[in-house]
Here is the input.
Amino acid sequence: MKPIAYSYKRWSSAIQGKGHTEARQTELAEEYAVREGLILDTNRKMSDSGVSGYSGKNVKDGALGAFLKTIDEGQIAPGSFLLVEDVDRLSRLPIMEALAIFQRIIGVGITIVTLRDGQKYSTEQIKGVRSEAVAFWVVS
Here is the structure.
């Protein structure tokens, strides 16, 4: 069976929501899933509209937080993918807090893909890489 991909979209302001932000992020996820042979889950609507990544509200009260809860409950299978436009869609929190979110996701076998650059983040990929390098890599 093909792996499942989940798309998470976030934008910080209502003005961005009135533009093409959501459509652009959706299109990037759809194109990636087709290109990589993934099944894009369309049942979970994971969008945080007008939610700042700096405050962490998307993690505390938003769609990303709900997704993290489903991960913690074992509802997302290892080998799945989380598709985001850029790393900063997940978090703009201080580095250690952002890395904890990353670890929470990839630590259970879910690969994070940043769609703008096609970068994949998984436990397999970063084995043997020094933690300082990973921190720099993720936030750069």
Remarks:
- The chain has one domain: 4-139.
- Strands lie at 4-11, 39-40, 46-49, 81-84, 111-114, 119-121.
- The chain has eight helices and six strands.
- Helices lie at 14-18, 21-36, 57-60, 63-72, 87-90, 95-106, 123-126, 131-139.
